[in-house]
Amino acid sequence: MVTATVSDLAAPAEGSSGWPIWGHDAAVAALQQAIRGSRVRHAYLVAGPEGMGKTTFAQVFAQALCCQDPPAPGLMCGVCLACRKIGRGVHPDVQAFSLATQAALAEKSGGKNTSLTIETVRDVCSTVALRPMESSWRVVILDDGETLQEIAQEALLKTLEEPPPFVVLVLLSDDLELLLPTIRSRCQIIDLRPVRTTAVVDSLLAAGIGQDRAEEIAALSGGRPGWAHRAAADPKVLQRRMEAVDRALSWIAGSGYERLVTAVRLGDTFSKRRPEVFADLETLLGVWRDALLLHADQPHYLTYRGNAERLNELARDWTMDDLHRAVCSVQTCIGHLETNVRPRLALESMVLEWPTISPPGRL
Ligand SMILES: [Zn+2]
Predict the structure, then answer these.
(1) What is the pLDDT, as a whole number, of residue 110?
(2) Which of 46, 98, 115, 302 is spaced 20 to 30 Å from 357 by Cα?
(3) pLDDT tens per residue across span 161-170
(4) Ligand 1 geometric centre to CA of 140 (Å)
(5) Distance 32 CA to ligand 1 centre (A)
(6) Distance 132 CA to ligand 1 centre (A)
């Protein structure tokens, strides 16, 4: 019954779990134990911010369930036909549904594709009812769960209430609050948190990325392995990240008035750009944390190492208390936005907590 809400900061050595997952060790251990003890649940909800590696995590879990030649219970071999088919997305007993698969099906209709519809959930439910053909489980992965329309969530509830005994449904969501409480309570929640930078480096090295590039990307990843692998494959992803860090630094470096203007602008667009605003706030939190770490003379833990000089310049007059209050203000703001406090109010209260900037430190 215990929800695997884990902090990987205290996890053991990366990659030691036997799954090709670096970091997220406690979450991996919880699922491995479930498989070993034949206590696999019928519904899991893998939650965590975008880029945390949720899709890969679900795919590896499916391999552990369906592997034909596991080296030990709870592990997968990675080379049998089942493991390879799951890796290529063509195993008949492992289906993934997402905005992308929905778009592929609805290509002709040409409509917007920003939320998972009830039709897609109906497809999920009819897939769930089919007996597995090649393994003892049918694994159905539903990605982009945070975009499920309410009526679609209600349709999904029926399946969650009485799943067939051979089914494991894995729902993935960037944002738990966008799912009905009744959905959340019927799933075991696996909360994926940022992993250590060294774990991100190791996972990039394992994918054949060179040491220097792996370290550069990992330093910008904010502990998100999924993001790091996308950045390794697409330079634009890295570029956008650097721009986001730059935006956060400029926000901090602004005058009191400029800070408020940015807060109001983000607040007013929150309902339309919810994921982007949350992403900006996560970046902002990382930058403030870095300022705190620099102040505490702990530069080796920095998330955005490339910006240490600019941050040092900004933070030189601030005290530990100032920086701590700023970090807390961002955390509080994220919490408020998740619990539907008025966005503008939440963002304005946040910037008012920040230490003021002395004119020579302006960027
Ligand atoms: Zn296998």
Answers:
(1) 56
(2) 302
(3) 989 999 999 9
(4) 18
(5) 15
(6) 17
Distance 42 CA to ligand 1 centre (A): 21
Q: How far is the CA of 65 from the centre of ligand 1 (A)?
A: 9
Q: From the CB of residue 104, how many other CB atoms can be counted at a distance below 10 Å? A: 10
Is the pLDDT reported for residue 198 higher than 70? yes
- What is the 99 CA–ligand 1 centroid distance (Å)? 28
In DSSP terms, which residues pair with 138 in a beta bridge? 167
How far is the C-alpha of 273 from the C-alpha of 112, rounded, in Å?
15
Contacts of 133 (CB under 8 A, 6+ apart): 92, 93
User: How far, in Å, CA of 178 to CA of 145, rounded?
Assistant: 8
322 secondary structure, DSSP code: H
The rounded Å distance from CA 213 to ligand 1 centre is: 31
Please report the sign of the dihedral spanned by the C-alpha atoms of residue 201, residue 174, residue 347, residue 255: positive
Q: 363: which 2 tokens?
A: 């960027």
CA distance 194 to 211: 21
Question: Of 167, 144, 171, whose CA–CA distance to 156 is shortest?
Answer: 171
The residue type of 146 is E
- The alpha carbon of 358 and the centre of ligand 1 are apart by a number of angstroms equal to 60
Q: Which residue has the tokens 């209260």?
A: 349
Enter the pTM of the model.
Answer: 0.76
- pLDDT number for residue 4: 35
Q: How far is the CA of 169 from the centre of ligand 1 (A)?
A: 20
